[in-house]
Specification:
The protein is mainly α and about 230 residues long. Helices cover about 80% and strands about 0% of the residues. It starts with a helix and ends in a 9-residue tail after the last helix.
Length: about 230
């Protein structure tokens, strides 16, 4: 068993060393392409500013990966890990600045407002959770909450699309608004868990007590908004 684990580790290390340079170059290219799309399509200063913050962090990750790559003895796993995180953040530039589709005919301003709030929160939280992905141990709640938020948001969008033909538009609108709000709350919970992960990584806990306590507090549920 030990020999097998050593062999697997060496194989993974060899694969990482072979892929590292290409992964860094791909990350840099993806970020540049995503930023070019932002500058070409966004006409909102606020959206461009938010996208620029995401782009700056993604470029920092790619730069760290390239700096490690240029070391005499690179940490190949760190190079590929940083590059992968930078690539994961690149699509968030489009998520922040992507033009909204035209509202459904007859849509309601209260539904649109709830959707806009959920979208803004998701766009803000995605890069925060992506940055914390490499820190998680037992506590994977940041990613779980974000996935829950995205699924709930998608469901709410589907509800909104049915408003025009709904038999009871008021009830249908309330359902959509409630789901958008739940998506916003779940994204907020994802942010809190990601920040907690970073704080624990910074303080360097000596054991897994904090993670177990967190799981116990939420009763092992996939989503526990406060």
């Amino acid at each position: 068993m030990l020999v097998k684990r050593i062999e697997d580790h060496l194989n993974s290390l060899e694969q990482a060393s072979l892929n590292a340079r290409g992964e860094v170059e791909r990350a840099e290219l993806e970020i540049d392409k995503a930023w070019a799309n932002v500058t070409a399509s966004s006409d909102s200063a606020a959206e461009t500013e938010r996208a620029e913050r995401v782009a700056t962090r993604a470029r920092e990750l790619a730069a760290q990966a390239r700096a490690e790559l240029q070391q005499p003895k690179p940490d190949w796993f760190r190079v590929t890990g940083l590059a992968e995180r930078a690539v994961q953040m690149a699509p968030e530039l489009g998520a922040v600045s992507r033009p909204r589709t035209a509202p459904v005919a007859g849509t309601r301003p209260d539904v649109e407002a709830a959707r806009a709030r959920a979208e803004a929160t998701l766009a803000e939280v995605r890069p925060i959770v992506a940055e914390a992905d490499g820190l998680r141990g037992e506590d994977n709640m940041a990613r779980v909450c974000l996935e829950h938020a995205q699924q709930t948001y998608d469901d709410a969008v589907a509800d909104q699309a049915q408003l025009a033909g709904a038999d009871d538009p008021d009830t249908a609108a309330k359902t959509a608004i409630d789901r958008f709000r739940l998506a916003e709350e779940s994204a907020g919970a994802a942010r809190e868990h990601a920040v907690a992960l970073r704080e624990r990584a910074a303080t360097g806990p000596s054991d897994k007590v904090a993670a177990r306590s967190l799981w116990g507090a939420i009763g092992r549920r996939p989503f526990a908004p406060e």
